[in-house]
Each structure stands twice: as structure tokens, then as C-alpha cells.
Amino acid sequence: MMKGITMMKTLFLFIFIFINTHVMSNMDKYIDFDIIESYRKPITMPAKYLEVFSVVYKKFSSNKNRKIENYTVNISESKDLYIIKFSIPRKRLVAGGGSGFYHIDKHTMKIIKVEFYK
Q: Among 99, 107, 38, 103, which Cα is nearest to 75's?
């Protein structure tokens, strides 16, 4: 009986070593570990901000000189307003861009003020 258990341990040890030296050594050719790493850092926000952002995005994207991927977005709120601020990171100056903000009324979900600076 002990001989069977010892053989099983030896077989599992062999499989473990084989997988780690042969299969795992080539794994980086097939798996993008940067993508896996990015899933460890999720971005969490209240879902209500997605609705607010969708209102602003329609207006923002109507200006063909602005590309959303060039901006960082900050969302904050007061008692009656949502404030969506768009800014370009300082190391990425973009022609036609600029920082700005939108004020959205919480009750009507309509944009009540827009200001952009170049």
C-alpha cells in the first residue's frame, strides 16, 4: 500500500516539474501578462456616473477636434449638480484640445453650463 502512495507522489512530482519546466516556460509567448495584470486594478465607480457621463459625452464628441482618448475625466457632485471635468495630462499637449467642465443638473440630467479653455 505504501509503495502505491509513493509511486503516486513521484508521478505527481514528475508532472509538476514537467509542467513548470516545459509548459510554463513557453507560456509568455501565448499569454499577454500585461492584460492579466490590468484586471487586478479595476476602476470602481458608482453606476450613476455612467449615466451622467453619457449625457456629457454626446456634447463632447460633437466637437471633431476633441478625441476622448486624449483626456482624463474627473466626476464630482454637489447637492444639485454633477461636475464633469475634462483635462489633458500635461505631458500630452494636443492641438485643438483644452481643459474644461460641464455642469449637469441632477434633477433634469441636462447640461446647464459648459466651459472649455485652450
A: 103
Q: What is the pTM of this model?
A: 0.57
**Of all residues in the chain, what percent are helix, strand and coil, respectively (each to 5)?**
45, 25, 35
Q: Is residue 65 a contact partner of residue 75, using CB atoms and an 8 Å limit?
A: no
Q: Beta-carbon neighbour count of residue 60 at 10 Å?
A: 20
C-alpha cell at 31: 499569454
In the chain, at which residue ranges do the beta strands (DSSP E only) sit? 72-77, 81-87, 99-105, 111-117
CB 60 within 8 A of CB 89: no
Q: Which long-range contacts (CB under 8 A, 24 or more apart) does 72-78 make?
A: 75/45, 75/49, 77/106
pLDDT in tens, 20-64: 555 445 555 555 666 656 666 667 788 888 899 899 888 888 877
On whether the CB atoms of residues 82 and 104 are closer than 8 A, the answer is yes
